[in-house]
Amino acid sequence: MDEAGEKVVSSAQLAGRCMVNAAQVRKDLAYFGEFGIRGVGYYVKDLLADIKRILGLNREWRMAVIGVGNLGSALLSYRDFLKQNYKIVAAFDIDPPKVIGRVSEKLGKPVEILHVNRLKEVAKERLIEIGLITTPPSEAQKVADMLVDAEIRGILNFAPTQITVPEGYVVKDVFFTTILDNLAYLLSNYNEGRR
Amino acid sequence: MDEAGEKVVSSAQLAGRCMVNAAQVRKDLAYFGEFGIRGVGYYVKDLLADIKRILGLNREWRMAVIGVGNLGSALLSYRDFLKQNYKIVAAFDIDPPKVIGRVSEKLGKPVEILHVNRLKEVAKERLIEIGLITTPPSEAQKVADMLVDAEIRGILNFAPTQITVPEGYVVKDVFFTTILDNLAYLLSNYNEGRR
What we know:
2 copies of one chain form a homodimer.
Chain A: E1 8-9, H1 11-18, H2 22-30, E2 42-43, H3 44-55, E3 61-66, H4 70-76, H5 79-83, E4 86-93, H6 96-99, E5 103-104, E6 111-115, H7 119-125, E7 130-133, H8 137-149, E8 154-157, E9 170-173, H9 176-194
Parallel strand pairs in A: 3-4, 3-7, 4-6, 7-8, 8-9
Antiparallel strand pairs in A: 1-2, 5-6
Helix pairs in contact in A: 1-2
């Protein structure tokens, strides 16, 4: 809404966008303080800044992609990351033709692809806090262990396999098939409901 | 486990993999019938078939990718889909150089990229039930409308914008930045916990 130049938003409008009810929006926001102005609503810019602060998003997060196949390349050129202060500052692979000289030129600044054995050294230099695993599943745990060794505490795992990390590290999985399973289940149930 | 050749699994082993407790696993499965054998556990092959049946996953789902940029190409060659009976049977774009002749050769069978104005016709011919939107956000709603017009009832939306569909259609969003927001929040809180 801020991008669209909207200045003020009501809880009802917010509720409509989020598909919840307006009372819930007011209640949830009130939990963190007084943001709204009675009879007016919320100032879009202020509310955005407040929510970012609450969620810990008022800062930059520096990320590395490990595995520059199709998905890794797609993430390297994913514009929405930059808009939200997620910055990919390094990319790693193990495949020499990829490592030598290939860069992503889709974003303003090209990202050089380095050999994964430089992960720990580069993580320190470039203050990397989040690693995106986009390797084949067979390599995912090995990469997770390397991220842990480099003290990169946040992992977004796109490899369709479970990985384990020690306490103090956080893994979020993005399993496309699991999301499709959910969609397929909803489609199946809807069919049954109609019969 | 089936792929690894394992024949039998206990509720404790299942619980360990899912990071829940064994009693919960037994209770959840018992809700759908009697699958386990006391003192033995579950037969892996049988349990897999039963769960697939329960979740409506014991069939093939035919899918189309709309938008063959980096992410669309990545999905076209995403091996895990095939393993799970999700089959991409068509790919669409609007960009002539992509539409003419370019195919994905990563999987066994190449997928021809068609102009998006053939979506409705091809959806019927190829019995497409799920559409994956991988266009820029500015085009996502337009594509969603075309999917609805083609009566493709399931949508997996990768474009970072909200889309709306009529009742009877199901949308699942895959917003990488939203997942990162969640990870960033957990990392921030963990930091605070340590201070």
